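W.,

You were right to be curious about this one. When I first looked at the sequence I had no strong expectations either way, so I just let the prediction run and decided to look at it fresh. Below is the sequence, 408 residues in total, followed by the output.
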Amino acid sequence: MKKLQARHIMLIAALCGMMSNCLGVLFNVAGLFFNPIADEFLIGRGDVSMAHTIATMGCALGGITGAWVAKRMKFRPIVLISAIVFAGATALLAFTHSIWPQYILSAFRGIAAGTAGTVLVTIVINNWFTGKVGLMTSLIFCSAGISGAILSPILSAVIEAAGWRTGYLAMAAFIVLFYLPGILFPLGIKPEDAGYEALVLGEKGEPLKAQPAADPAKAAGKVDPALYLLVLVYACIASASTAYIPHFSGIADSYGQTAAVGSAMVSASMLANTFGKLAYGWLTDRVGIRKGVGIWGMLVILGIVLLLKVHSGSALYAAAFLIGMCYSLSSVGTALLSREIFGIANHAKVYPSINMLNTIANAALTSVIGFMYDAFGNYNGALLLFLGGEIVLMACTVLAYRRAARTR
């Protein structure tokens, strides 16, 4: 087993910065701006959350773009261009006076974040690391939770003290900061691009714990449509589940709680995002993806039930923390499940399209939640939809493994 070298540490820092922007900034703190913008523009929360939906759809397109540019451009130019567009469009949001310019700028923000986001990061991880990929993927993806946990109270305080426009300017500064390692460090999409070899985090060729189910698709070839559909449904539900976190501020408000409680709920979910991913990667390397999904899925369901039944401050924080486990099932879980079910070669073929479609699902549900609140005056229906989705997600995982075992 090779030890981490300075170049590998720089790479991890760069990838963490990219994930902090793609998931942490674009997704995890977006809800802090919903209420103040809706109040100033005199529009509904659904109209404001539509900007986030557009950004998310842009991110889905950016994921496909990231897979395309990874074959044609070097690492640093990709990150640099993404930084300029993402930070620039975010700063320009501070100067808008109606919702339509926000929709346009949100599309650019999403495309930029997605291009240097999940798909590109996953490609780089698979190129640079061998063995214990679950733990390494979790380590890098959990940076989104750390950034969200840090930014949520900071941006909330800025918005409260100086308004949402200043909040967007502060967000733009953080975007540049998170991209700096990828811009400054001499790295490559493949280790040989930077004069290095792939780092083996275990015995050479060591498979994932539950690899047998993936044997039918280890070599690149035809992908079973039924397997693809099952993994896609899992991925769409898992990604859509994270759309509830930006609405925590609104949920807290609907329960008669203060904005500070809503911000603390987001921070609690970001802590679960961070530590949950680390724990999930460690767990799946030992017991497999199927059992990991079952355990984490039940924790999320427990959080939903708690959120529906108890509306006090401490209970809301506990519910937010448990619901925050859905981040593990989404980003890390989808990447690992796809890699295991389809094999590494086919994973590179199917993951970009799965990532695009599950990101669109997240985008759609973000607005659906807002419009459901506008229509019914509460979030109960949306939370019940969340509960049902988690049950279907776990069922898809079981069926996918059974299907893979039958096609061996």
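Here's what jumped out at me. The longest helix spans residues 326-376. And, maybe more interesting for your project: Strands lie at 129-130, 199-200.

Coffee later to discuss?

I.
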